[in-house]
Write a structure and sequence with these properties.
- It contains 3 helices and 4 strands; from the N terminus they run βαβαββα.
- It is α+β, with helices and mostly antiparallel strands.
- The protein has a single domain, classed as Glutaredoxin (3-Layer(aba) Sandwich), CATH 3.40.30.
- The chain has a 4-stranded mixed β-sheet with strand order 2-1-3-4, with helices on one face.
- Strand 3 and strand 4 form a beta hairpin.
- It is globular.
Length: 79
């Protein structure tokens, strides 16, 4: 699984990354996590509000900080 955190590095983006890492830990899952911070790369995902979370090249969360529980539900359903 590959996860991308889209954002310019603000506190919301950092919190989304922490929540994603915690959700993965609680699910005993591993994933490659990448930060995408350039405007051009972010716009390639057609995301206008940040932070955003991309899983396996699909935008799953945008414009909000998903909680650990929300991310566990989302990530737990991805094979």
């Amino acid at each position: 699984m590959k996860i991308k955190i889209l954002g310019m590095g603000c506190s919301s983006c950092q919190q989304l990354e922490r929540n994603a890492r915690e959700a993965l830990r609680e699910l005993n899952m591993t994933a490659e996590i990448e930060k995408v911070t350039t405007v051009q790369e972010i716009l390639a995902y057609q995301v206008m509000t940040m932070p955003a979370l991309v899983v396996n090249e699909q935008v799953c969360v945008k414009g909000q900080i998903a909680t650990v529980e929300e991310l566990k539900e989302l990530l737990g359903g991805i094979k």
